[in-house]
């Protein structure tokens, strides 16, 4: 038997010795290291607009809410143009809104009485309690009395002394008609009126 | 030592392959609800609301119910100004201390205290303010020495039936404050012309 010598070498030389693999622990450590090295930084590849969206939604809701809640939402038309004042104080929102336009007297958007084209002598006698010279408007009185009763039940403490009303009248409303409305309210235990005006006018409404 | 151990070629290849960052599937990309269209809608609505709603600033003037007929209130013991302004078609008639204020606002007598402007269309609100300031100043100079003197702040405003509401508001504005912000007659009571 011939002794086994080194394997015969070819013309290209000896084949490379097969490298012994590293241990599993080393392999895993190196894998972790490599993953960590190549990991992408958390990239913000889109604009984060959620915060802005929140803000805009809040602004929109706030605008819609405040505009619908205030009397500022009243449309200014030929039928109702409020007078201008030099006042710059904040408008009061307490009380039942009474609207005196060129064509109607309304309580909370409900037309109660029609206003004649010439109202310089007040409303027609058929709407009055005691004839044309009376200041009391019967139908308006009934409506505001119902409102007064509700107010007394809802706000027993605040409304004990009397209720409040917001008067939104057209700038050309004759004084007689204005006084008839205020007198009727006064007779139904409304003891404070807030006359709604537009801010920013010059003295005399210019 | 383990640190000096060399990785084999196969191990290096495997590490290279496994350490590649994983690409996200199309449905995983973003990882967030796409709210851009919603934002567009909100922005458009907001712009529309802001553009269409005319912002009008309101104010309210507090007043009290009008009094009809004669008052049953006992006459005051101390002298009072008792300012009453009647808005008529030609101007303002002013009553103070029970008498009619004559034109010029310096003495009592018949006539309108403050007539309309020369064109006959506009009320002379500046003139009314000056007149009221003069009356109040003179009255306070005479009576401020009294022990029970209290500055008056109430005025009764009355108007002819046909006087427009704007003129009444203008009258209230004119008698509310002086030019330098000093209070004149902010408490308004409406009266009835007889």
Report on the structure:
Chain A is α/β, with parallel strands linked by helices and 206 residues long. Chain A has four helices and five strands; from the N terminus they run ααβββαβαβ. In chain A, strands 3-2-1-4-5 form a five-stranded mixed beta sheet, covered by helices on one side. In chain A, helix 4 (175-187) links the parallel strand 4 and strand 5 (190-198). In chain A, helix 3 (138-154) crosses helix 4 (175-187). Chain A is rod-shaped. In chain A, 28% of the residues are buried. The model of chain A has no long low-confidence stretch (mean pLDDT 81). The model of chain B has no long low-confidence stretch (mean pLDDT 81). Chain B has a domain at 79-190: Nucleotidyltransferase, domain 5 (2-Layer Sandwich). In chain B, strand 6, helix 4 (165-176) and strand 7 (187-190) form a beta-alpha-beta unit. The longest helix of chain B has 19 residues, at 125-143. By secondary structure, chain B is an alpha/beta fold. Chain B is built from four helices and seven strands. In chain B, strands 1, 2, 3, 4, 5, 6 and 7 form a seven-stranded mixed beta sheet that branches. Chain B is elongated and about 120 Å long. The termini of chain B are far apart. Chain B is 30% helix and 16% strand. Classes of the chains: A alpha/beta (206), B alpha/beta (194). The interface between A and B is large, with 76 and 67 residues. Strand 5 of chain A pairs antiparallel with strand 1 of chain B.
Question: Based on DSSP secondary structure assignment, what is the total number of beta strands of chain A?
Answer: 5
Residue share in helix of chain B:
25-40%
Order of helices and strands of chain B: HHEEEEEHEHE
Oligomer: heterodimer
User: What is the number of helical segments of chain B per DSSP (H or I, 4+ residues)?
Assistant: 4
Provide mean pLDDT of chain A, rounded: 81
Largest β-sheet summary of chain B: 7 strands, mixed
Indicate the overall shape of chain A.
rod-shaped
């Amino acid at each position: 038997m011939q002794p086994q010598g080194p394997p015969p070498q070819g013309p290209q030389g000896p084949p490379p010795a097969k490298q012994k693999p590293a241990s599993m622990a080393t392999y895993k450590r190196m894998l972790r290291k490599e993953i960590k090295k190549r990991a992408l930084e958390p990239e913000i590849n889109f604009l984060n607009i959620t915060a802005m969206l929140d803000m805009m939604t809040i602004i929109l809701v706030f605008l819609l809410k405040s505009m619908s809640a205030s009397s500022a939402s009243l449309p200014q038309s030929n039928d109702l143009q409020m007078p201008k004042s030099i006042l710059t104080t904040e408008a009061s929102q307490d009380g039942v809104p009474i609207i005196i336009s060129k064509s109607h007297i309304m309580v909370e958007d409900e037309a109660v009485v029609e206003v004649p084209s010439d109202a310089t002598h007040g409303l027609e006698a058929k709407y009055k309690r005691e004839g044309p010279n009376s200041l009391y408007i019967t139908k308006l009185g009934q409506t505001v009395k119902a409102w007064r009763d509700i107010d007394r039940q809802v706000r027993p403490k605040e409304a004990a002394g009397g209720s409040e009303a917001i008067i939104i009248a057209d700038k050309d409303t004759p004084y007689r008609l204005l006084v008839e409305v205020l007198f009727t309210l006064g007779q139904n235990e409304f003891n404070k009126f807030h006359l709604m005006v537009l801010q920013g006018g010059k003295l005399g409404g210019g | 030592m383990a640190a000096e151990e060399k990785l084999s070629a196969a191990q290096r290849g495997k590490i290279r392959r496994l350490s590649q960052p994983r690409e996200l599937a199309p449905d995983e990309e973003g990882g967030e609800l796409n709210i851009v269209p919603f934002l567009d809608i909100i922005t458009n609505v907001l712009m529309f609301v802001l553009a269409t709603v005319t912002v009008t600033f309101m104010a309210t003037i507090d007043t009290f119910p009008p009094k009809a007929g004669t008052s049953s209130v006992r006459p005051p013991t101390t002298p009072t100004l008792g300012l009453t302004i009647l808005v008529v078609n030609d101007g303002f008639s002013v009553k103070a201390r029970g008498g009619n204020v004559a034109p010029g606002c310096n003495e009592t007598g018949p006539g309108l205290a403050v007539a309309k402007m020369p064109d006959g269309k506009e009320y002379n609100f500046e003139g009314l303010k000056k007149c009221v300031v003069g009356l109040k100043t003179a009255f306070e100079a005479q009576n401020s020495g009294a022990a029970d003197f209290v500055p008056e702040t109430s005025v009764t405003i009355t108007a002819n039936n046909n006087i427009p509401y704007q003129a009444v508001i203008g009258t209230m504005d004119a008698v509310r404050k002086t030019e330098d912000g000093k209070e004149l007659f902010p408490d308004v009571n409406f009266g009835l012309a007889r």
